[in-house]
TrEMBL record, chain A:
The organism of origin for this protein: Candidatus Marsarchaeota G2 archaeon ECH_B_2
Name of the featured protein: Quinol oxidase
Keyword tags: Membrane, Transmembrane, Transmembrane helix
InterPro entries noted in UniProt: DoxD
Chain ranges passing through the membrane: 12-32, 81-101, 108-128, 134-152
Domain TQO small subunit DoxD intervals: 19-168
Automatic annotation (TrEMBL), chain B:
Protein name: Thiosulphate:quinone oxidoreductase small subunit DoxA domain-containing protein
Keywords, in A-Z order: Membrane, Transmembrane, Transmembrane helix
InterPro entries named in the record: DoxA
Stretches assigned to the Thiosulphate:quinone oxidoreductase small subunit DoxA domain: 26-150
TM helices/strands, residue ranges: 7-27
């Protein structure tokens, strides 16, 4: 019988890596959905000439933007400047979401997802958004960190092939970076 | 303590600090006071002025909405212009009829402020606009304009109609 990939904790108990699959699917789909909506299902959202242009929502951040007010107004008055950023961000959402779901470079994707979620933090306080935005962002940060730390893609993910073929590989073979695994 | 424990605790602290910090920062949900600016609108009168022309007074009302939901507009269905001897009330239909021009702030990208028969003046959170509203000619003097917004206290500002025009 094939040995199950496990996460061993300090007490010697084992957590099957397969248990990370629901988290991979959940967090991954949240990111994939963000990119899918903007780039595929409603591409007018990234069109600065459209009334649906997502960055138009920046206006709702203005009342509590403090020192960022000038920057936000500049972006609102020059929407064509924000469009490339929005497209790149949406592509990243698609990539991170897809990688997490298929379990490829899961740790890197988890790290990227956590950073992207943390980057949304200004929306928590710049806008007078309801607490839901904070809850979603916080859970995506925590989920991304867990997926980054665990070898979540080594079971039911393409990382399992990479692990079997190449073993544990650090990002770079330096004192610090070799501890950060690629998959 | 094993290496994985150190890593787990380190990242747990980072995540906890992020969550608790942003929660307190944005909503005061760690030790209070709780605040959530998305619940009720807060209309702010940026400026108001009046000019008499022919037999009418042109009110220039620059307003913005600084709190409230971001998904739908704030309505101002009643406007009252008054002083000690005079009072004029405009309901939403009259506001719609008497509004002749709306100048959007340049940052109102796709959230345009407007006016409707039902809601009166309608503002998006964060957007700003100058409404030109024509009313019957006001006599020279000082006036107060009061905007009534459902669920929140009315907001007022003073303006003067000069004798010159």
């Amino acid at each position: 019988m094939e040995k199950t990939e496990t996460l061993k904790d300090s007490l010697g108990s084992y957590v099957p890596a397969a248990y990370m699959l629901p988290l991979r699917i959940g967090v991954g789909w949240m990111w994939l959905d963000g990119g899918l909506r903007k780039l595929v299902l409603a591409p007018q959202k990234v069109n600065p000439a459209s009334a649906s242009f997502v960055l138009g929502k920046f206006v709702t951040f203005l009342p509590h933007s403090g020192p960022f007010e000038g920057f936000l107004k500049f972006m609102l008055e020059n929407p064509s400047l924000g469009s490339p950023f929005l497209i790149v961000y949406s592509v990243l959402e698609l990539v991170v979401g897809t990688l997490l779901i298929i379990g490829l470079f899961t740790r890197l994707a988890g790290f990227g997802g956590a950073l992207m979620a943390a980057s949304l933090a200004p929306a928590f306080w710049l806008g007078s958004t309801c607490e839901d935005e904070w809850q979603i962002g916080s859970l995506l940060v925590a989920g991304g960190v867990v997926l980054m730390l665990s070898a979540a893609g080594r079971r039911y993910g393409l990382d399992s092939y990479l692990y079997r073929r190449f073993g544990d590989r650090g990002v770079l073979n330096t004192k610090l970076l070799r501890h950060i695994k690629l998959w | 303590m094993q290496r994985q424990d150190v890593i787990a605790l380190t990242f747990a602290i980072i995540v906890a600090v992020f969550i608790l910090g942003t929660g307190q920062w944005a909503y005061g949900n760690l030790y209070g006071p709780l605040h959530n600016y998305s619940k009720k609108p807060m209309v702010d009168i940026v400026s108001v002025s009046a000019t008499n022309f022919d037999n009418h007074t042109y009110l220039l009302l620059n307003i913005t909405d600084v709190n409230g939901p971001d998904a739908y507009q704030t309505s101002i269905p009643i406007i009252v212009v008054s002083n000690t001897t005079f009072s004029l009330t405009l309901n939403s239909t009259q506001i719609y009829t008497h509004t002749v021009k709306i100048i959007q702030a340049p940052w109102n990208l796709n959230k345009k402020d407007g006016v409707s028969r039902v809601g009166g003046l309608e503002l998006w959170l964060g957007s700003e606009a100058t409404y030109t509203i024509i009313v019957s000619k006001l006599q020279p003097g000082s006036y107060t304009i009061t905007l009534y917004v459902p669920e929140v206290p009315a907001v007022s500002a003073s303006f003067t109609v000069s004798a010159g025009a």
